[in-house]
Amino acid sequence: MMPEASAQGGKAVGLVTVCGFAVATALAFI
Amino acid sequence: MNALTAALWGALAASSLLLGSALALWLHPSGRLVGLVMGFGSGTLISAVAYELVPQATRGDLPVALGLAAGALAFFLGDRAIDRRGGERRERIAAPAASATPKPAGAGLAIFLGTLLDGIPESLVLGMGLSLGGAVGAAFLAAVFISNLPEGMAGTTSMEAAGMPRKTIFCLWVALLVASAAAAALGYALVQLAPEMEGGPQRPSRPGPCSRCWPTR
Predict the structure, then answer these.
(1) Of chain B residues 40-79, which have a CB less than 8 A from chain A?
(2) Model confidence over B132-187: pLDDT tens digits?
């Protein structure tokens, strides 16, 4: 999933991946 | 909470496949947008594994390690088998017009099987988590929902590029949604049927004194 996401989305994919991680982590601790 | 409720949660988590499919069919989002959504979904999945799934399973270190290795191996072998049958492009976000080369005849089925390989274990875990905890892990549910969205978008785009009719594509995603709901119910039932499992629900199988069971009165 990540290789294709990076190929299509460019460098910004790294940032949104971190955002997704942060959102899900926040949900896990609520 | 019962198996039907678990099935409904499984269906809800998988419903983003249909949503992603509809978005791909009618809005034709750019590859960059789908790639960004995939990246976001990947982040949520990594978090769900790190903070929801593995911590809940760390009651026995060796079995958990073996389970993780077995799951990774099963996914690797299944993914490789599907790639060899023409499904290696299932996550490619190529516009139908750009597909100059003909796709393999079995590519559509391989694409579907690839998504099935992703979705069934997720739904099983969701059902098991519901059975053990009695509540939906919001992070895991969000992770599955969000990660399914780009899969639906990319899979639909690829299947359409392979020449599959829109009606067939829609029916395949509906079938996958039903299979996900069934897998969630199965995961729920498996835990309920194994009450002696450590950490699992402990309920009396029949009335009578039992030191490990819930009181009957």
Answers:
(1) 40-48, 50-52
(2) 776 666 777 877 887 788 778 877 877 787 778 888 888 988 999 999 999 999 98
A11 close to B (CB below 8 A): no
Write the residue in A8, A17, A25 that is nearest to B93 by C-beta. A8
ipTM confidence: 0.93
**Segment (H or E) for A12:** helix A12-29
Angle at B5 between CA B8 and CA B149, to 5 degrees: 25
CA B163 to centroid of chain Cα atoms: 25
Domain boundaries, chain A: 1-30
CB atoms within 10 A of CB B73: 10
pTM for the structure as a whole: 0.70
Q: Residue B194: enclosing H or E segment and its boundaries?
A: none
